User: Fold MTH1187 family thiamine-binding protein from Streptomyces nogalater.
Amino acid sequence: MIVAFSVTPLGVGEDVGEYVADAVRVVRASGLPHRTDAMFTSIEGEWDEVMDVVKRAVAAVEARAPRVSLVLKADIRPGVTDGLTSKVETVERHLAR
Assistant:
């Protein structure tokens, strides 16, 4: 499964990068395949391990912010591994035609 999620602290002002970095540290420490871009962090693994990482990432932000917003999108596809890479490669292959 691949989960794309965004954790946003609320009530801390406009500059939230420091708080988001706390969440990304949790993802990186998990050892699961992941990518972070300007809007989301994507993480790949089994349901329980991915959701545990998301929960801990939210808790890291929640520890410093009075309110937290979580946006989450999941691609649940049993038996597929390396989806973070293979999905992008498929699109790139089509673009190259």
